[in-house]
Amino acid sequence: MEPLAQQSPLSDAIRKHKEFLFPAVATYYAEPVALVKGEGEYVWDDQGNRYLDCFGGVLTVSVGHANPTINAAIIEQTNKIAHTSALYANPNQSDLAEKLAEITPGELKKSFFTSSGTEADDTAIMAAKLATGRNEIVVLRHSYSGRSATALSAVGHSNWRPLSAQVPGIVHARAPYCYRCPYNMTPDNCGAACADDVRDVIETTTTGEIAAFMAEPILGVGGFIVPPKGYFERVYEITRKHGGLCISDEVQTGWGRTGDKWFGIEQWNVTPDIMTSAKGMANGVPIGWTIATPEVADKFPGLTFATFGGNPVSTAAALAVIKMIEDDDLRTNARIVGDYLREKLEELKEKYSIIGDVRGMGLMQGIELVKDRQTKEPAADAVLKVFEQTKREGVLIGKGGLYGNVIRTGMMLNSTKDNVDELVQALDAGFAIC
Ligand SMILES: Cc1ncc(COP(=O)(O)O)c(C=O)c1O
């Protein structure tokens, strides 16, 4: 593809963004992009440039931009009634809750809806504390859970924590970060040794009686960190031995993203007591969701309320997204197209020594860049170069990792191998200039 025209001067949207938004609302790229239109896998900026969107607004546009089926469900519901509040039942919320009880693993049955992943995680932590009568929560370093006082206190990245911990009792165990294994082991010989850190953290930094362990099945913002086999089995066993509940944060890994299964935790042969999600659940319409076993949910006392929770429009969108994932077998597609992408990324790794690690599952694939494969010194500058070049090639990607040196791709669940080829060609051009 021909390199795209440079954006100059700044568009009105970008100028006003810089002038009127908190500077902390940082944008990607030296010259930020203002998006004005989306269709399927593609988006357009306000200069008329088209891009293949391989990040979907952080794994949120799950079945394509402006998807006609999802939009029809949203429009139909908006024209009927757009808001009820949780003080009244509405058919979409009830149908969605019933469907979620059916597709979630184990005994998960009762849902609480909100508007974001942050609120979903807050609700999960609150529910665990109320159900157990305990206060301490174990989370992982390199994890991300949002920006409320509780969620922020659980985040395992200093750069996403503008304030120190606001909520006491949240402790951080080591991440199962195999590429940077703290024990200098490899996934095939470690026996998931890092899982024992959860036990050590409980025994040394808590009362020993925790309310819950909360983790993402693959650490998203952390740079798509994939735990070794056996990790979750061991950690869930340790957690339960200490009387804690197990919470799976599926904000990024839900809805077939990891391939074949509805939820990421199902890849690890364990069953959580509480699960959360948001992002891809409604293809970009704001939604947050917490589901728990009746045993946990029924111990949430008194009244609780979220004005937009279970909103008929966002739940209509979620119902339509889930139906589409089912009807079009997108969980299988995520595995097949994801495997193809992985194969291509491994080929790039053979070609470019700057690629230290390629990892992920399904359509959640990341590339960690290093200055040297021996020292593994993070190459965040190279990520920025790849960003600028892939943008010139007409492809949008994401990044993450504590050191900002991991390229993240979160292609739509209905992406094709042709889309993968387009992405890989752009990445190739990016790595070539590093
Ligand atoms: C795993 C995970 N949990 C929670 C959140 C918070 O979600 P939100 O930004 O919708 O509040 C995020 C956001 O990126 C996330 O990745």
Q: How would you characterize this protein structure?
A:
- The protein has 434 residues and is an alpha/beta fold.
- Helix content is 35%, strand content 15%.
- The protein contains 13 helices and 15 strands.
- The strands form three sheets. Strands 4-10-9-8-7-5-6 form a seven-stranded mixed beta sheet, with helices on both faces. It has a four-stranded mixed beta sheet with strand order 1-2-3-13.
- Strand 1 (35-39) and strand 2 (42-45) form a beta hairpin.
- The two termini are 20 Å apart.
- The mean pLDDT is 96.
- Pyridoxal-5'-phosphate is lined by residues 58, 116-118, 121, 144-146, 216, 220-221, 249, 251-252, 278.
